[in-house]
Every structure is written in C-alpha cells, then in structure tokens.
C-alpha cells in the first residue's frame, strides 16, 4: 500500500535524515514510527502524505509513484489520508460539528449527507454530545479525539498520526491509541509517529525505527504498559 524504494531525504542546507531507505507498509497494518527527537519521524509521515518530496528514490502509494503525479492530482492523493497532528490544527472559531464537517465541504459534500457523516464520526470518537461545543472548551484528550473524527470523516484508507498522545495523561493516551486501533480493526491502515512507545498498551504493532539515517523495520510485537 505504501512502498519506499531507496528513499533519501535532506532539507536544503541540512544533513541527510535518511539515505536510501526501503520498506513497505501493507493494507491493514498498524505501524509505529519511532526515533529520537529530530530523527525525522514527522518528515517520514509528510513524505508518505505527499506534503514533502524526497530528495531521492521513489514513494509508491497503491503502486502509484507519487513523485510522478501531476500537481493537480495531489489533493486526490491527500483524500486517501486522514491526518492527525499533535497540535490538532483545529479551527478554534468553529464548533466541533463544523470542524469535522470541513473536509467534507472541501469535497463538496454538504447538507444532510454531511450531517449524517459528521455525526457518525463524532459518535465513533465519543463526542456526539459535544457537537455544538467550541474546541477551546474541550479537554486535551477530547480535542485530539475531535481531530481524529475530522481525519476519518472522509473515510480514508490510511490514517497518519503525528504524536497523537503528546501532552495527554496516561488514561487519555490509552483512549486515543484504542480509538486508532478500533479504526485499524475495521481495515484502516494506521501509521503513528511516537517517541514514547510505552504508551501503546497491548496493541500489536510493527515498528519502523529511524536512527543514523537508516530505518530498521521490526516484526509485529505486542506493546506492554
Ligand atoms: N521544513 C523544514 N525545513 C528544514 N528543516 C526541517 C524542516 N522540517 C523539519 N526539519 C528538520 O529536520 C529534522 C527532522 O525533523 P522532524 O520533525 O521530521 O523530526 P521528528 O523525529 O519528528 O522530531 P520530534 O520528535 O522532535 O517531533 C529536524 O532537524 C528539523 O529541524
């Protein structure tokens, strides 16, 4: 589903973050990207989603080389991804419902159909009773769950989350991981960048570890608290 073939990455005037790394993420995988701060975890997620371009090699999404895609095709590629960032990137002048509805309205889905899908997404993350709440009135964990609802409302086949439990306590972190696992259980591929793997609980996962410009794939394992 996602294939990196000899991918190298360096930002202008910086050292390489990775050199000629290759790995595959299969449909339905639950993958953790680990590595120290600054190792390049966020960059790896951005490469997958076509937000950054690699300095070498090829990235294939469903066997399509994304570097060969026309600029106009990038928004369609992005729709396959649900993106969840550590700082939520919620719109604080819109309520919960409106935040989740935004990706749908960009795709031209409005009215009853949009309302039905927004409420289904809010229900999945346990925020159906907060649809009128402004994000600022929600707890950190609730804001992150709202960001997840917004990420999944377009029914993406891949959810990419960058430190989704950052700043949350243990209980809220566990809820977020269990929520992401629930989407994975129904077939969504989930890729999470995380420096603190201890929060993963008893979720089976594969790890891609970034260190010294290389990425090491480790087999499936079960995380322990
Ligand atoms: N747009 C950019 N332009 C130049 N350098 C960048 C850019 N984005 C990130 N970097 C640099 O690339 C390196 C890797 O950053 P990245 O955010 O991918 O690491 P990370 O592993 O996610 O770190 P953290 O755990 O601290 O979030 C850092 O040194 C960062 O300063």
Commentary on this structure:
The chain is α/β, with parallel strands linked by helices. It folds into two domains: 1-80 and 156-225, Rossmann fold (3-Layer(aba) Sandwich); 91-155, no CATH class. The protein is 30% helix and 28% strand. It contains six helices and ten strands. The strands form two sheets. It has a six-stranded mixed beta sheet with strand order 6-7-8-3-9-10, sandwiched between helices. A four-stranded antiparallel beta sheet has the order 2-1-4-5, with no helix packed on it. α3 (96-106) crosses α4. The longest helix is centred in the C-terminal third of the chain and has 16 residues, at 170-185. The protein is globular and about 45 Å long. The mean pLDDT is 89. Adenosine-5'-triphosphate is lined by residues 11, 14, 17, 35, 37-43, 193, 195. Belongs to the ABC transporter superfamily. It is a peripheral membrane protein. It is found in: Cell inner membrane; Cell membrane.
């Amino acid at each position: 589903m996602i294939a990196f073939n000899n991918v190298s990455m360096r930002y202008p005037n910086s050292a390489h973050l990775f050199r000629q790394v290759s790995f595959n993420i299969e449909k339905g995988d639950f993958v953790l990207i680990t590595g120290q701060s600054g190792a390049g975890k966020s960059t790896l997620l951005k490469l997958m989603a076509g937000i950054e371009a690699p300095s070498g090699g090829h990235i294939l999404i469903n066997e399509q080389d994304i570097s060969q895609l026309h600029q106009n095709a990038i928004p369609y590629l992005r729709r396959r991804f649900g993106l969840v960032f550590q700082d939520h990137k919620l719109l604080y002048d819109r309520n919960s419902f409106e935040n989740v509805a935004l990706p749908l309205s960009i795709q031209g889905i409005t009215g009853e159909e949009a309302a039905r899908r927004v409420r289904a997404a809010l229900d999945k993350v346990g925020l159906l009773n907060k649809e009128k709440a402004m994000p600022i009135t929600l707890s950190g964990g609730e804001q992150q769950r709202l960001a997840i609802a917004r990420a999944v409302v377009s029914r993406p086949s891949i959810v990419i989350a960058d430190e989704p439990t950052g700043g949350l306590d243990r209980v809220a972190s566990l809820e977020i991981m269990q929520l992401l696992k629930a989407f994975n259980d129904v077939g969504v591929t989930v890729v999470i960048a995380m420096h603190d793997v201890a929060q993963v609980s008893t979720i089976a996962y594969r790890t891609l570890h970034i260190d010294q410009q290389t990425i090491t794939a480790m087999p499936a394992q079960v995380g322990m608290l």
